[in-house]
């Protein structure tokens, strides 16, 4: 398989109490196209920082990241926006739906943001196509009946399914998810993992941060973040 991500000498520092603190320290990483990879580690070990660097939300203090051979640091803001919207699907640890949009509109949002011409929800052929795809994804997630609901009325598991559907809206090459089963009961957690397994079977690479050891058997590889570096678990 071809290389999807590569990180070399990755370091990310933050200021804490007026002092520099290294969340990541000279980290090296590689991931192949279509791979299913878990990252584990204690809270505060740098996992979320690492995901945010790969997604282009943060810039490294030193070192470099490449996606399919292109250095993220060489891109302008427009190319970075395109990468975040089209190449990757991101599911944050904290629920990130927009409360004033319905479930259907939240899921369709990435496709509508990529339009060059907008005339409101469903006001163009592309918007209509986006809503149709959103309906397909919601059906796959088992929550099509909730398409006209607002996020405030959903359970935790339903919100996670909504975020997964939104992350898959533009058919990304890789789905990056930060603790997608956190705070869910055992039944909902198992359902989310089954949905992720199906996504992987359709060819999407998965990079998942988790604390739950009982689900690690799904992955091709498991890495552990320790002291700002990744090690084989």
Mean pLDDT across residues: 90
**Strands across the major sheet, in which order?**
6-7-8-3-9-10
Helix percentage range: 25-40%
Order of helices and strands: EEEHEEHEHHHEHEEE
- Main beta sheet strand tally, sense and closure: 6 strands, mixed
Please work out how many helical segments DSSP would assign: 6
Derived structural class: alpha/beta
Strand content: 25-35%
Uncertain parts: 116-122
Count of individual beta strands? 10
Global outline: globular
As a whole number of angstroms, the C-alpha radius of gyration is: 18 Å
What does this structure look like?
- The strands form two sheets. The chain has a six-stranded mixed sheet with strand order 6-7-8-3-9-10, with helices on both faces. A four-stranded antiparallel sheet has the order 2-1-4-5, covered by helices on one side.
- Helix 3 (103-113) packs parallel to helix 5 (156-167) and helix 4 packs across helix 5 (156-167).
- It has helices at residues 47-54, 77-87, 103-113, 125-140, 156-167, 186-201; strands at 3-16, 19-32, 36-40, 62-67, 70-71, 88-91, 174-178, 205-209, 221-226, 229-232.
- The protein has six helices and ten strands, in the order βββαββαβαααβαβββ.
- By secondary structure, it is α/β, with parallel strands linked by helices.
In short:
Helix content is 32%, strand content 28%.
Strand-helix topology:
Elements: E1 3-16, E2 19-32, E3 36-40, H1 47-54, E4 62-67, E5 70-71, H2 77-87, E6 88-91, H3 103-113, H4 125-140, H5 156-167, E7 174-178, H6 186-201, E8 205-209, E9 221-226, E10 229-232
Parallel strand pairs: 3-8, 3-9, 6-7, 7-8
Antiparallel strand pairs: 1-2, 1-4, 4-5, 9-10
Helix pairs in contact: 3-4, 3-5, 4-5
């Amino acid at each position: 398989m071809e290389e999807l991500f590569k990180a070399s000498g990755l370091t990310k520092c933050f200021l804490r109490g007026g002092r520099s603190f290294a969340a990541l320290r000279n980290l090296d990483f590689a991931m192949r196209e279509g791979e299913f990879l878990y990252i584990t580690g204690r809270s505060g070990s740098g996992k979320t920082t690492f995901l945010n660097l790969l997604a282009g939300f943060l810039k490294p203090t030193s070192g470099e990241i490449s996606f399919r051979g292109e250095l993220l640091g060489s891109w302008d803001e427009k190319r970075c926006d395109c990468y975040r919207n089209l190449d990757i699907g991101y599911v944050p640890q904290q629920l990130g739906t927009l409360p004033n949009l319905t479930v259907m509109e939240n899921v369709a949002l990435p496709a509508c943001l990529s339009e060059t011409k907008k005339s409101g929800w469903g006001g163009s052929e592309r918007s209509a196509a986006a809503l149709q795809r959103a309906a397909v994804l919601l059906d796959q997630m088992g929550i099509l009946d909730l398409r006209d609901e607002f996020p405030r009325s959903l359970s935790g598991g339903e919100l996670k399914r909504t975020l997964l559907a939104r992350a898959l809206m533009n058919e990304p090459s890789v789905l990056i998810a930060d603790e997608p089963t956190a705070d869910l009961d055992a039944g909902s957690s198992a359902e989310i993992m089954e949905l992720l397994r199906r996504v992987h079977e359709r060819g999407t690479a998965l990079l998942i941060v988790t604390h739950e050891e009982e689900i690690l058997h799904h992955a091709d590889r498991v890495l552990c973040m320790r002291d700002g570096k990744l090690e084989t678990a």
